[in-house]
User: Fold this.
Amino acid sequence: MAIRLQLLTADLKEIELIERYWAMDDAGQFLEKVSALGECLALPQGVTLIGFIRQRCRAFDENQVCPECGALIEIRNRSEAKKVPLRSTGLCARCKADRDAIALEAERVKDAELQRLLAEFGDRQASKRVDYATVPDAQVLLLLALDTAVTPRLTSGGFTIGDCRGLAPWYVGDFVEQLREAGLILEDPLKARPGTYYWKGDEIWSKGAQLVYLLASGTTAGDGKEAISTLSGRALTDAQGLFGLWLDYSVADVICYLSDQCDRYSLELTEQQWDELKSIMRSALESYSVGQLWFVAWAAAKDASSMTNLRYYNREKAAATIPGKIRRRLEKVRRGALELSSWSRPEHQPAGTLGMVLTETFGTDETTTGLTANACIARLTGQECASRAADVLCAPIRELMSNALALDLGTAVMLRFADLIRAGHDVSFAVEEIGSTLRA
Ligand SMILES: [Zn+2]
Assistant:
């Protein structure tokens, strides 16, 4: 018999049943069918034959040997028995228990090491100091917006990325990352949920969504609340940095809307296509408003979705046309061949606390064009933004003004200028257009 039995019962009838269950011929075939065995003994209700046998007998397969100690492997039923001798892949119960105990101990040691390293990391983070007086203006506004979004957890208790949802319509993680890279917010590993940090080989990895952040301490005495209240009184001077923040935020506002439109038509874009769209929108926002680009995004998604029914097109190919459609539409607008409409803010897309801070600080919103925003920021900071656009416009505007006054057409020129801007043209187009009429 290839199955070695260790009987746990002295009842002869039970022993007979057990031996008949496990009996096999030389070829490893079981001699009797399980269904035939049910009749030889009345089993208590609710007890299966195999359960009954296992309680009264342990079975070891002579064809399976523990690779560690050479002992026979215990099997639970017929299907686990092997017909021919095999080197078992599994260990016997005792070796397995030994090995589990060793693994458990190793895990305990590694876990203790992880906790020690995290405590050290936490101490190093907590000892960092930031001189809030030197933090750039754009990061100051971003911090104030974050404080409103997660209040009061920026300065006490800590917050996760998920808590920052109210900061901006899109790219919340990127905004928070800007602050983390600048050392203004720090990870607090001891406040994170157990399991947030874990070993992967010899490296410590973390689950981004569970990381807990906290505002870095300032160099001067006082708590985080004091640092934030000092920042809110900051006199802003860095026009270029602030316009950069305005652009970052406006791009998020436009891309959120475009992503919504793509979802609506089940159009999926690749990460590379999204990066391309981000660049297109950022450059367009230097002239146009978020509301105008919502219109452009809406039109491009709608056009692309109508192509999905065309021959040789599918959703993927149709989605891939969106960046090109947006580029061509914007080129037409710049050439004066097309006028831009402006959409108002969708109900389900709030401006976020960063949008509110920008509105409070500069008076800008989704209807403000990049040119106007740039001018508002320049006015507030008392500095002209070092923008190529302003330099390039200087001479043509001087020429336009002197011609208009010389011809006594000041009013007509201003009204025409206002019309063109309202129609979505940028300042340089309007100046050139009116200038050419005056020269004619
Ligand atoms: Zn063993």
Observations:
- DSSP finds 17 helices and ten strands in the chain.
- The mean pLDDT is 89.
